[in-house]
Amino acid sequence: MLIVNVAAPSIQRDLRAGFSDIQLVVSGYVLAYAVALTSGGRLGDSLGRRRVFLTGLLAFVVCSAGCALAPSVGVLIGLRVAQGLAAALMLPQVLSVIQDVFPRQERPRALALYGATMGMGAVVGQIVGGALIRADVLGLGWRSVFWVNVPIGLAAAACVPFVLPRSRPVRRPADAPGLLLTAVAMPLFIYPLIRGGAGGWTWWVWPAFAGAALALAALWSVERRRESAGRAPLIAPSLFHGRGFTTGLGAALVFSCGNYGLFLLLAYVFQEGLHLSPLASGVGFLPLGLGFAAASLAGRRPAVRHGNRLLTSGAGTMVLGYLVLAATLARGPAASAGMQALAMAPALLIEGVGQGLVAAPLIGVILATVPPDEAGSASGVVLTINQLASSLGVAAFGALFVALLGADPQQTSARLTAHDFTDALLGCAWAFLALAVATGLLAWRLPPPAQPATDTTR
């Protein structure tokens, strides 16, 4: 998903789009993904996980090809929404398979590896995307970051019958009111957050926010009644009765919000502010990726027993990374773009280590706070919150970045300099730091993990 970030400046330039359009290209996917995620998990339970995963994968391939052929930014946004819906059919099946295949005592390690893989893939995607745009194979430019999904997706689809186990369908009634209210509430909140700043926060923004609040209140009421009646709700309100689960969700929310916002802003600073090529921009993410990979692999075993303390340590490392980044940016841009990217590398390396220590064990730590029979429902809620936070981070930090910059990043009449971009990123760095502190405080409040039971039958 994050491979699109490194292509964002090229997409904006080629399609003559505004910065808020690019935010929708990124967050439209995430928003659709988040809204349909829980329903995708339910479909897997009802129709069989392998069948639903394969359907979602093939739909994702078709939508990727459509994105690569998009003639305008409006068409691209629509296809990205469809792509997000297809992804929502795939990912819940992966977590459900982990819950089924691995014994309870091995799940934290499996989930830590899953989190590490997802995080490393996000960083590697920046480099691969930059390389594809730089190579400009067949003159495709940014479109190649979508075309690359086609052969990979088809190869993965060919492997599905051999690697993904069958599951027995479990018929459950659909929660149509819950899905409808979720689909209403989320766009009413995210869309005006993205478009509001670009449009001068006109009158329609505030009724939209009010409508989102009413829809969320109605969703909570409907889901409580549905659960009390013994019918399966889309989101079980009883999950939120436990302090550990709600605290863990708060940590996931603030962590993902800052994480995804950072990726988007760095792509613009590297390419529009420092005038690095897409490939050089992708390489600029390499310290972040190396730190993430090293921390994820090193923290895999400690995550099983010390997930909470590992999260706190990771958040503290993120705070240190943002302090180093702020100190680096406060000195002003270096003599050359390459030197500026090099000067930022230590901060990004530290930041990557912190993110790796948080991202890898986070899902496992949260799921450990709920009873085993509620793990499936809890997984859907965690993933939904994570994706909504991603969309919120892109919207909020994009708006803050543009406000500090004083113009659209590609507005030529504004005559923006490298100093303008580094100053805007410096202002955002303090907000990123505040979210890292909040992540650490919430992780510190999580209950200690339950120790695996000892086998006394031998």
From TrEMBL:
Its main location: membrane. It is found in: Cell membrane. InterPro entries: MFS (IPR011701), MFS_dom (IPR020846), MFS_trans_sf (IPR036259). One of its GO terms (molecular function) is transmembrane transporter activity. Keywords: Antibiotic resistance, Membrane, Transmembrane, Transmembrane helix. Pfam families: MFS_1. Residues 1-451 form the Major facilitator superfamily (MFS) profile domain. Coiled coil: none annotated. The chain crosses the membrane at residues 22-40, 52-71, 77-98, 110-133, 145-164, 176-194, 200-222, 243-270, 276-298, 310-330, 342-368, 380-404, 424-444. This is Major facilitator superfamily (MFS) profile domain-containing protein.
